[in-house]
Specification:
heterodimer; A: 89 residues; mainly alpha; 5 helices; 0% strand; elongated; B: 115 residues; alpha+beta; 3 helices; 4 strands
Chain lengths: 89, 115
């Protein structure tokens, strides 16, 4: 049984995702303040439905994730960003 | 003790240009009368809203940056709520990073205007 186990040949080689070291872009570029007035920058932290991406995806540190969340909520209040949408990014 | 504040408000698109200027002037006077001092103001003009507010999908955006006494903000907000031309407003206290950022942003926009 084990022998034919080894003989399984995959049609396409299983692509192992090389693990990219995630870094907090705010620490790296020394950004201290997240401005709620420019939606273009904030869109990088939203998914297609307009929801805020979790830290494990964007890799931002906790301190800046809170600032981003507050800025996004302010932008939503001022209708610069939608609450929910199916915007094509 | 004076703090630096930033306020943005959206006016209904139904208004004519004259009414918009008059509304902006009214709030500028409110700030200056109550001991506020305007540092910077920006008029973003007619912009599309991300979602309809009061059945309208566009609005006139206006932004003020000013230093004022904390007690004055409440008066300003009452005026916002009372004025029916304003459909949405937001005021917030700038912390030291925000002040720095606003400073840089102003110089950048001035530089753009020059060249």
């Amino acid at each position: 049984m084990a022998s034919n186990q080894g003989e399984i040949r995959y049609l396409t080689p299983p692509s192992v995702e090389i693990k990219k070291k995630k870094y907090c872009r705010f620490k790296k570029n020394k950004i201290k303040y997240v401005d709620y007035k420019d939606p273009e920058f904030l869109k990088k932290f939203l998914n297609e439905q307009g929801r805020i991406l979790p830290r494990r995806i964007t890799g931002t540190s906790l301190k800046y994730q809170r600032k981003v969340a507050k800025a996004v909520k302010r932008a939503r209040h001022l209708a610069l960003l939608p609450f929910v949408t199916d915007m094509l990014k | 003790m004076k703090n630096q504040y930033e306020t943005v408000f959206i006016a209904t698109p139904v208004l004519s240009d004259v009414q918009i200027k008059e509304a902006v002037q009214k709030f500028k006077d409110i700030i200056t009368e109550n001991g506020g001092e305007i540092v910077n103001e920006e008029h973003w003009g007619l912009r599309k809203l991300a979602y309809p507010i009061q059945k309208k999908s566009t609005g006139f955006y206006q932004m003020f940056e000013f230093t004022a006494e904390p007690s004055m903000i409440e008066k300003l907000e009452i005026q916002y709520r009372r004025d029916e031309r304003i459909i949405r407003f937001l005021t917030f206290k700038q912390d030291k990073y925000a002040v720095e950022y606003a400073e840089k942003r102003r110089n950048k926009s001035k530089a753009e205007k020059e060249n």
